[in-house]
Amino acid sequence: MRILRGANRRVRACRTIVSRVCDRYSAFRQVFVRRGVDVNERRVILLVEDDEDQVLLAMRALKEHGVASEVDEVVVAQDGDEALAYLFGEGEHAGRDPRVTPEFVLLDVDLPGTTGLQVLERVRADERTELVPVILFSASDRHRDIVEAYKLGANSYVAKPASFKEFSEAMRLLGWYWLNWNESP
């Protein structure tokens, strides 16, 4: 009998949580509808990484941990210019509605051409993207890069772990946090 009461409490708690999530989702949809954004747009993660091996590792980790299944697509930009073109609907991404933003951006610091810090600066300077969560995920653990990233408005800065196991766990935690636990405006 005591086990049943505990189970009933857990079921009620789960129903309460589901109800709150549904209410928040409803409110979220209403905000976007008022802004004129098609709320049936796809959920996307933007991964900005120039090293193909790192992209493969990231995609493998996101898939293995079910993070990739939480979104419709993981868009990969191989440099800062491509990331900005995607975010602002320019160049090869002309026609994409820039008001529909990624759930979050995983951004490498050391990119060819436009660096990750320059991308971050442009993202924060534009009202269409200023609130998009940007996580710098980089092999660079230079103190000046970390300080500059936060000054420019990074939401987080994570040094890439050296082993695949730690890298994979970092991707899992980042994905689940930014998709499921973080409250975005």
Question: Descriptors for this entry?
Answer:
alpha/beta, globular, Rossmann fold, 6 helices, 185 residues, single chain
Protein architecture, described:
With 185 residues, this protein is α/β, with parallel strands linked by helices. The chain folds into 2 domains: 38 residues; 141 residues, 3-Layer(aba) Sandwich (Rossmann fold), CATH 3.40.50. It contains 6 helices and 5 strands. Strands 2-1-3-4-5 form a 5-stranded parallel β-sheet. Helix 2 packs across helix 6 and helix 3 runs parallel beside helix 4. About 3% of the residues have low confidence.
**Count of alpha and pi helical runs:** 6
- Remind me, CATH topology of the largest domain? Rossmann fold
Assigned CATH superfamily of the largest domain: Response regulator
Beta-strand level of the residues, as a percent range?
Answer: 5-15%
The number of domains is 2
- Overall morphology: globular
- In helices, the fraction of residues equals 40-55%
Give the C-level CATH assignment of the largest domain: Alpha Beta
Main sheet overview: 5 strands, parallel
Enumerate the strands of the largest sheet in spatial order, edge to edge or round the barrel: 2-1-3-4-5
Total beta strands = 5
Secondary-structure arrangement, i.e. CATH architecture of the largest domain: 3-Layer(aba) Sandwich
Average pLDDT works out at 82
Unreliable stretches (pLDDT < 50, length at least 5) are 18-23
SSE order, as H and E?
HEHEHEHEHEH
Which structural class is indicated by helix and strand composition? Answer: alpha/beta
- The Cα radius of gyration reads 18 Å
Distance between the termini: 44 Å
